[in-house]
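[Automated response] Your request has been received and processed.

Submitted sequence:
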Amino acid sequence: MSTEQKPEDVFQNLREGLTEISKRVGGFMEDVLSGEGASTGVKIRADLYYTRDQYVIELEMPGVRKEDVSIQVHDGVLTIQGDKHPHPEAAGFDYEKQERRFGGFIRTFALPLNIQLDNIKAKYESGLLTIRFPKVAEPAEDPGIPIE
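Generated structure:
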């Protein structure tokens, strides 16, 4: 019995392999460009919006404990990182199906220039992290410099 593959089978396998690589690289680049990170598959989704007085970032983090999250601001970049751990009772099980992901995550956001860095507020409740950035008050219109 011969183990040689037909040329069309070789090319079909190559096409399938390249398609899979393309999907993985595309997903990786999408995650990196969106600021979601790409190391563990833990997806932390965010909404960013603003009002007249503040900017707000809300991140969904179901199953993440408050003490497993850190928030830092450095050089105009907000970094949120943490860990999502499986429930301790699930340790040692053989999964039939596992759709949830666990591990570390990191999200970064470039901050606008007109925020009060010393008055940022963060609140974590029911799996939702809300970070509020008050805007700097707009200066009064400059009346100009009188000429004597």
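Summary generated for your ticket: The mean pLDDT is 79. The longest strand covers residues 77-84.
If you did not submit this request, please reply to this message.
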